[in-house]
Inverse folding.
């Protein structure tokens, strides 16, 4: 019996060390306040949440900020990798192992405050205006599914916040994002936080997740999910939201 216990202890020690020495590449985009690069460090609500999550399960997680398309593709090509903050949708379901949800907020279509001539109240009416989306973003798929077209009523950018100067100059009519994100984008550009106003809410767009490569070890993904649930119960996610949105 003693030998058996020693054997189990050795197995646990090997498994623990293997996990502790595992390097995971986690890709993300510039999308404050959830994830962004500042002073050579990836910051934000979800960046800090996932950093703490990795520490709890003894994973060496290396975060890299890239344009969204590259971040998304890298996570699909490398086994020990993932991408966040990734909206979980029916079209993406089979592409990743999903851990979450992490911090999220409802998406809205916004206009520049005071542009009363830009007045859609639903997706069909929004097709009469010029909408900005990020390449390979879930909203790009969402709007294309609902009949929006490049060259007609949709313009693509590398990041969600990149079209903000054109939006302020009235060369882009509509932006898409959460109220939390848009306030952060405006603040970062030293613009009044009420410069944009929401027109209508978007439905059927999933919450944010950490999306792991399909070949990522299932036991590690399960461990991450379990620890994330514990962090949620402990109020860690809500505390991080308050920390980053109060800045």
């Amino acid at each position: 019996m003693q030998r058996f216990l020693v054997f189990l202890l050795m197995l646990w020690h090997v498994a623990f060390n293997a996990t502790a020495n595992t390097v995971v590449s986690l890709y993300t985009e510039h999308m404050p306040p959830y994830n962004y690069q500042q002073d050579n460090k990836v910051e934000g609500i979800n960046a800090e949440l996932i950093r703490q999550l990795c520490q709890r399960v003894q994973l060496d997680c290396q975060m890299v900020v890239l344009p969204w398309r590259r971040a998304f593709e890298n996570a699909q090509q490398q086994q020990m990798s993932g991408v966040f903050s990734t909206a979980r949708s029916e079209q993406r379901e089979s592409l990743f192992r999903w851990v979450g949800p992490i911090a999220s907020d409802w998406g809205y279509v916004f206009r520049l405050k005071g542009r009363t001539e830009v007045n859609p109240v639903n997706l069909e009416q929004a097709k009469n205006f010029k909408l900005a989306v990020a390449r390979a973003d879930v909203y790009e798929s969402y709007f294309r599914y609902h009949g929006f077209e490049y060259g007609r009523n949709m313009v693509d950018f590398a990041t969600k916040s990149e079209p903000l100067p054109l939006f302020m100059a009235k060369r882009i009519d509509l932006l898409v994002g959460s109220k939390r994100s848009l306030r952060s984008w405006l603040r970062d550009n030293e613009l009044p936080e009420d410069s944009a106003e929401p027109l209508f809410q978007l439905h059927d767009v999933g919450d944010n997740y950490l999306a792991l490569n399909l070949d990522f070890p299932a036991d590690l993904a399960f461990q991450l999910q379990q620890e994330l649930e514990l962090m949620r119960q402990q109020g860690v996610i809500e505390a991080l939201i308050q920390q980053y949105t109060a800045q």
